[in-house]
Amino acid sequence: MPADRAVAALVERYGLPASAPRQLRSLLSLLTEDPLAPTTIDAAHAVDDHLADSLVALELGEVRAAATIADLGSGAGLPGLPLAIALPEAAVSLVESSIRKCEFLKRVVQACDLANVEVVHARIEEWNASVDVVTARALAPLEVVVEYAAPLLRIGGTLVVWRGQRELASEAAATKAAEIVGIQPGDIRPVQPYPAARHRHLHLMSKVMETPSRFPRRPGVARKRPLGSGKA
To answer: Does residue 33 belong to any structural domain of this protein?
Structure first.
């Protein structure tokens, strides 16, 4: 089947472990067929738009080397679940505030036999951690993601944010926010997770100093008064 061939191609491209083909197929099936999946996913494009788009972060050495990863606002488990499948030695936390989405994530974790995944039912601002890598895909404006991630990263850790076309105003706001919370903007890496992909970027930022104790702010404040916007 085309999806099986596409999954096999991803396994070969990234040198994934022997368990990955079965696990990725199980994940794909649940994403596209489970009536309780938290989002509608087009089965015809699911491998490219969701599996390949998630796994493209394996091109980053920081992600490959991570022992601990937190996927913020995990939703349907993207990119966290594909990365957990690809990196079975890494402990992956899927942080999600919706109980319905968490229940779906738990079903996927069980179906895919993922012993390295923890589903965390919490608001991001109320969860405590110190991890190597924070990932965020389709979560919030870039400057808001920076504020969410900073308290959760260890010094030297990396934030990886999935974005489409470059937005200079958003990047400037994120740079201002990063200075406040102890993060240093790094590369903005153009990526091509599949041949037809256009305008895809991974934004990399490193935690270089302790985040001030006033962070995280109360739930909802980062979105209402984002750092770097003049409203904080």
So the answer is: yes
